[in-house]
Design brief:
The chain has 443 residues and is an alpha+beta fold. The protein is 41% helix and 24% strand.
Length: 443
């Protein structure tokens, strides 16, 4: 089964992980402490079920492969009881758990667990995986399996393990059945897109040009009423919620630039699109490999909100009709070019001359609710997110959980202050989202 080569997209993430932290985090708040021995046993069972979690990466020539480890399974599980003073500011400690130490993909298993407990019983379980193979939507498969293994009765915790071979090549999975003429068209379109991205002028979020700092994390819950009103406005306009969410993100950046004294006419953002709709079998929905492809889009901000959302819809519709597959070819060309240049130079070239955006907007979608407990501990809240800076300096990650719309805002603390991040999430973004939704519904 293993070793297995990384896909071109995962190779690209692996390449960028030399320069940036590629950790992903499942951030789960529980209402009571966990049994650490029981959690470790559950984690070992999950490791056996997912071979990639029991592997390290090895290099052969210019490619990386997953190589399965021999011997007993031992998961890196870290526990900390917070003092009363630490519990008052536990958010900073939890953020450090996610990113203070990058997963060593070549020397250890690509995941670890952090359990942080407060004196009042509140407990946070953080599942750290690598964005080299997980995306923001699918990493929760590991969380779901861990909850199920932990919650199972004692006599069923060590059954025969159903091995889930989740590492596949998205490029081959979604393009191998295409006719040669279509593959050629997509390849040529990818090359043309690279040239166009390097030439088309666009603006960006204007931020202080300081040395890169640590990553801040802020969570915002917009509630069930906001989610229902957003869905209602989208249905009335014949849209998905994605154009409304992306439109509010664009207007938020425009407003931040205006407050700093800059006018923004055209803006480029990095978005993500799931390839699962192009899958030829249902089992792809149960895999955690990276199937959300990043791509850049340019938008004209001089038009009104309704026209802006219509333009977003048009671009997204073209992606849904199959143009997103072009991005797979573009990622493959990026990877090929990176092999011919020094890593730092290649990354700067992609970020500065091709991507040219420091804003990432990701609509993760619904966080699955098929687990509500870890044994007798109830899940109070759950967030899933990854970090890949550069090129992003601020990331808007949206998800729904228990019919509530939530925003996870990741930002470079050297260039975006915590006060600005708080204002964006509590004031600017929700107001703009509500305003745009009303205008689109009225139109």
């Amino acid at each position: 089964m293993l070793p297995r080569p990384l896909s071109p997209l995962n190779q690209l993430y692996r390449f960028m992980s030399y320069l940036v932290n590629a950790n992903s985090c499942e951030w789960i708040e529980l209402d009571r402490p966990l049994d650490l021995q029981r959690l470790r046993a559950a984690a070992e069972q999950v490791t056996l079920r997912h071979p990639v979690l029991n592997s390290v990466q090895v290099r052969r020539g210019t490619r990386y492969y997953w190589k399965q480890l021999d011997g007993p399974v031992r998961v890196d599980l870290r526990y900390r009881m917070l003092t009363a003073d630490e519990a008052e500011n536990c958010h900073a400690q939890l953020v450090d758990n996610a990113w203070q130490e990058q997963l060593p993909l070549e020397t250890a298993r690509p995941w670890r667990l952090h359990v942080t407990e407060a004196a009042d019983g509140r407990t946070w379980l953080q599942i750290i995986t690598s964005h080299v193979f997980t995306d923001g939507r699918s990493a929760n498969i590991v969380a779901r399996d861990l909850a199920a293994a932990y919650s199972a009765p004692p006599q069923s915790r060590t059954p025969d393990v159903e091995v889930q071979d989740g590492v596949r090549d998205p490029f081959a999975l979604f393009t191998s059945t295409l006719p040669f003429r279509e593959r050629l068209r997509l390849g040529l379109a990818a090359a043309a897109a690279i040239v166009r991205d390097a030439l088309v002028p666009s603006d960006r979020l204007r931020l202080p040009r300081r040395a890169r700092g640590s990553t801040g994390v802020a969570f915002f819950d917009f509630g069930q009423d906001t989610w229902e009103s957003l869905r209602s406005a989208a249905r009335g306009a014949g849209l998905s919620v994605h154009p409304l969410i992306l439109g509010a993100t664009l207007r938020t950046v425009e407003q931040l630039n205006a407050e700093a004294g800059y006018r923004t006419d055209r803006l480029r953002v990095i978005d993500n699109f799931s390839l699962r709709r192009f899958a030829t079998s249902d089992d792809v929905h149960e895999l955690y490999d990276v199937y959300a492809v990043p791509y850049t889009l340019d938008f004209d901000l001089t038009a009104g909100d309704a026209a802006l959302v219509a333009g977003i819809r048009g671009q997204l519709d073209r992606m849904k009709r199959g143009e997103i597959l072009r991005e797979l070819y573009r990622q493959k060309l990026y990877m090929a070019s990176s092999l011919l240049t020094p890593k730092k130079l290649a990354t700067r070239m992609v970020a500065r001359h091709i991507v040219r955006s420091n804003v990432i907007c990701t609509n993760i979608g619904p966080v699955p609710e098929d687990f509500q407990h870890f044994g007798d501990a109830a899940v109070v809240d759950y967030y899933s997110f990854s970090q890949m800076f550069p090129p992003g300096e601020i990331m808007f990650l949206f998800s729904t959980y228990r019919s509530r719309l939530r925003l996870t805002l990741l930002y470079d603390t050297a260039r975006v202050s915590s006060a600005t991040a708080d204002t964006v999430g509590r004031v600017i973004y929700p107001q703009l989202l509500a305003s745009i939704s009303r205008k689109v519904a009225d139109a």
